[in-house]
């Protein structure tokens, strides 16, 4: 058992060195442990000086000291996430007004946008990617920065979002089940709730593994979703969770 624990720690440290931050869900998936075990591993690794514990996971000791380079962020993109981002990109049209959420897949979407559009986001990484797009009118929602998840939040942003009829809002997910879409932070879930209520088209972009995970704060129910983009087809029981008019798009790799 001790050897297995040691090997598990080595894998977590390797991933932390590559990604700079890991959520509890990341660790659960990467080394195949329960949420309680992932939490205990985080406490032990932080105590050993391998990283700094956060409310939602663990970050490297140098996390936040520098902005990750473009090449470093690219390393986070699997072929599946890149394909989903490209599928989402087909829903963006010149002159449109869009919201783009904070997630690795949607960071890839932000990096891929070349049309003259207006983008609202609360994601620091999206803003960095979009800041070099001369055709994009960028609105970065302000407030306090969540250093782990790298998004900004303020109550005033909720009022701003609720008054904008986005042509489409692109949103990720920490977890999903028959009752709705969930997120790790209450403030983040509040942003998603406001966006879901205002957008003409709500597009959720997520890997199907999120159906196997649990998270704390619900952003909206599945009935609010107009389009779901995944890396592979849903099983029939999962499709039945959604409203009859939901559009299902599978990314082509």
UniProtKB/TrEMBL annotation:
Residue intervals of the HTH deoR-type domain:
5-60
Coiled coil (residue ranges): none
Which SMART domains does the record cross-reference, listed alphabetically? DeoRC (SM01134), HTH_DEOR (SM00420)
Keyword Protease recorded: no
Under InterPro entries, the record lists: Carb_Metab_HTH_regulators, DeoR-like_C, DeoR_HTH, NagB/RpiA_transferase-like, Tscrpt_reg_HTH_DeoR_CS, WH-like_DNA-bd_sf, WH_DNA-bd_sf
The record's keywords, sorted A to Z, are: DNA-binding, Transcription, Transcription regulation
Q: Name one GO molecular function term.
A: DNA-binding transcription factor activity
Q: Which SUPFAM superfamilies match?
A: NagB/RpiA/CoA transferase-like (SSF100950), Winged helix' DNA-binding domain (SSF46785)
The protein in question is named Lactose transport regulator
> To which species is this protein native?
Lacticaseibacillus nasuensis JCM 17158
């Amino acid at each position: 058992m001790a050897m297995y624990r040691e090997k598990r720690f080595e894998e977590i440290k390797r991933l932390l060195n590559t990604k700079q931050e890991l959520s509890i869900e990341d660790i659960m998936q990467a080394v195949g442990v329960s949420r309680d075990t992932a939490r205990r591993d985080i406490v032990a690794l932080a105590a050993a000086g391998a990283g700094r514990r956060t409310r939602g996971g663990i970050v490297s000791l140098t996390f936040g000291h520098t902005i990750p380079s473009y090449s470093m962020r690219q390393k986070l993109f699997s072929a599946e996430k890149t394909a989903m981002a490209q599928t989402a990109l087909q829903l963006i049209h010149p002159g449109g007004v869009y919201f783009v959420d904070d997630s690795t897949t949607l960071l890839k979407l932000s990096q891929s946008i070349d049309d003259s559009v207006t983008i609202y986001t609360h994601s620091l990484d999206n803003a960095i990617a979009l800041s070099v797009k001369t055709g994009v009118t960028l609105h970065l929602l302000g407030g306090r920065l969540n250093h782990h998840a790298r998004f900004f939040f303020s109550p005033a942003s909720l009022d701003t979002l609720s008054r904008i009829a986005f042509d489409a809002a692109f949103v990720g997910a920490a977890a999903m089940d028959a009752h709705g879409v969930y997120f790790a932070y209450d403030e983040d879930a509040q942003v998603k709730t406001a966006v879901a209520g205002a957008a003409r088209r709500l597009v959720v972009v997520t890997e199907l593994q999120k159906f196997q995970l649990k998270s704390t704060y619900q952003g909206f129910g599945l009935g609010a979703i107009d389009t779901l983009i995944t890396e592979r087809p849903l099983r029939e029981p999962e499709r039945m969770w959604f409203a009859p008019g939901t559009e299902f798009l599978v990314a082509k790799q």
